[in-house]
Amino acid sequence: MKNNLIAEIFVVAALVALLLVLLNPFGWWMPTATAMMLTAALVVMFVAFTAFVWRERPQDEREHLHRSFAGRLGFLAGTGVLVAGIVVQEFAHNLDPWLPVALGAMIIAKIIGFIYSRSRC
Fold first, then answer.
1. Does one domain contain both 43 and 99?
2. Which ranges does the record mark as transmembrane (predicted)?
3. pLDDT tens, 64-77?
4. Are 87 and 103 found together in one domain?
């Protein structure tokens, strides 16, 4: 369990670091090849993170509650950031279509997951 937690923290930290580097916050110029390598690394780290999340199996009610709370918090943080991005970009009259698409995908997946889990019980 502890090794799994350390591995998850490492994968999440690497994923966040890659996202920050891809944002280019310090104005570093990135050659195209470097950007493509970092994008490939981002995809690999995301797949690893997805494997950790998908493989999680709660052992008791307490772990199930913790997993549910973490999922709910992650969903609300993601949707909140997307809504803030939509509002800011809409005020600038330059809305990136990926923001509403991502928000819609999150909401639709949440509803489908809810319906699926209700039908299994």
1. no
2. 5-23, 29-53, 73-92, 98-116
3. 888 889 889 999 99
4. yes
